[in-house]
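Obj.: predict assembly geometry.
Materials: sequence records (below).
Method: joint structure prediction, all chains together.
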Amino acid sequence: MDIISIMKIAFKSLARNKTRTFLTMLGIIIGVGAVITMIAIGQGATKVVNDQISSMGTNVIMVISNTSNTQSRARQAAGSGNLLDEGDVKAIQETIDGVLYVSPVYSTYGQLKYGSNNWRGSIAGADVDYFLIRDLSLEEGQYFYPSEVESGAKVCVIGKTVADNLFLGEDPVGKTMRIRHIPFTVKGVLKSKGASSMGMDQDDIVIAPYTTTVSRLIGQRWRFMTIMVSAVSKEKIPMVQEDIMNLLLTRHNGTTRDDFIVRSQTDIAEAANTVSKTLTVLLASIAGISLLVGGIGIMNIMLVSVTERIKEIGIRMAVGASKRDVLLQFIIEAITISLIGGLIGIIMGWSLAVILGQTMNWSISVTPWSILLAVGFSCAVGIFFGWYPARKAANLNLIDALRYE
Amino acid sequence: MDNNILISVKGLTKTYQMGEVYVHALRGIDLDIDNREFVAIMGASGSGKTTFMNLLGCLDRPTTGTYLLDGINVADMDDKAITQVRNQKIGYVFQAFYLLPRTTALENVELPLLYCRKMSTKERKEKAMYALEVVGLADRAKHYPNQLSGGQQQRVAIARAIVNDPVFILADEPTGNLDTRTSVEVMELFQKLHSEGKTIVLVTHEFDISRYALRIITFRDGKVISDVPNNDVHIASVDLKKLPRLDIEEEVS
Ligand SMILES: Nc1ncnc2c1ncn2[C@@H]1O[C@H](COP(=O)(O)OP(=O)(O)O)[C@@H](O)[C@H]1O
Ligand SMILES: [Mg+2]
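Observations (raw structure tokens):
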């Protein structure tokens, strides 16, 4: 008998027992749906973290003085300061091999004003290298010049969010805005880096020469500097990190390694990936359990249905169905259930992921491989858990099957 | 050899093993049944009638002995050939009807056609519908077994048995679950099929039913104890006129 006819028989049989068919499918629907949703959430989280880290720039190393450490604070009070200064920046630039760009970064916060428009934004006081370290390109206008940094010129480059909110469609380049009442000339507008979904808007920034920032906006007493360094290559990063640490220890008498944090982009990415890997493993195990339960559910119902259908099998064989026909019918039923269940599961899982993404404001990412995995799984479940009951059905003795009560 | 012989069995035995116990259901049967015969097999319960029918129907294989069907030794046939014989040469009617539940009368009748050569859906439906017409149930084609009376279910089963135009029909106590009038109606159907050229082997333990056959074979303890022509053949359609009508059953649906 040809396979098409057996498929018809199998489909009819499934359609005839809609409740049983649906209950069998439910396990697969939930299992596959869970896999798609969980992987979408896990992948989404990983993607956010990775995007954020790579948006820091290329081969970036951050140098911070560690103020959270109580011993450091005690040493600081005793006079052996670990606060970074411009001398450190210069030393890093001049003495350490493998350093491409270096820039101090002073961060502050303040009221921005243009005409009658107000905006509160974060302000970074930096050197010209900062743009290169962080891969900040211009939408329009220019960066500020090294000479403007040297002279402490009141100029700035602004991010897209600041431009939109303060200038409301006007071209900001060449205009004068006020940062904490001090007039600054806007030299350029940065290309958007996109809003990160972790709540930080990377375009909500004003970048001004660090000299001007310190003298006009922060004041000498409150200066707290971060140094951003970019290494010539990824491979050089560990070496540069170590050299910077040693340099700082010699330049700041009486300090220890605990007093500074010299962290590279790779370090941060690794730490973040450990977290997101744990998350993915956790989510995958939850999904895995529902898959397993779904598979067992299929086998269970299939087995029950063989027992329930012994008489049907006997009748079919008596009127001319061969062992092969019965075997194929049961396998096709199982595969159909898992394929349709898998398909519904993909749709449901995908929808759930999208809905979760929107309502919870999570980033989600439905990857092709997770769909492939789900489809592959549902096929495998169909064949694996369908084979045994099908064999059982086909090997029934005709007379016993007919006599079965 | 008489080429009118359809079934020829020699020394047929069947022994079932139930744990330590051997049950000798058939102890050596020798029989010939010609084409176009209408045979009734009688005998007490447990005398081996069903076992014999299962062997004739190729639903089971004998322990010893030979069974020639149309001159071919069934023992020499492989599974595939036997499946084909079941599908195309033989029509079965069982005491318990054995219709598929949740399946319409028409679809039940179609069943043997699904397992035979490729056939268009239309052709299949037409054949099944014709078989239902023969048994007088064309108007119940879309009904499910649980919406039909016992007599109607048995007639659907008979339609299924004849849909593939088999050479012979095996009926194992087809009236066992039916009341008197319905039983005679079913026998009327068998007599009609016989007159149209089918060979019929029918098992019954009721004397009244055996009177509609032309030859009566009696079994006892797995052996044939008598094999005689029926000298007093009843005509079911005539008997029906004498029986009171129980119209209640026809209203059940
Ligand atoms: N599948 C079986 N397994 C074991 N014993 C069986 C089986 N089928 C029938 N028998 C036994 O064989 C004998 C004949 O049974 P059966 O052919 O059904 O008789 P009948 O149909 O005349 O009532 C009985 O004793 C019965 O119990
Ligand atoms: Mg019996």
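Conclusions so far: The beta strands of chain A are 60-65, 99-114, 117-126, 138-141, 155-158, 176-179, 182-190, 205-209, 225-231, 260-264.
To do: check interface contacts against the pulldown list.
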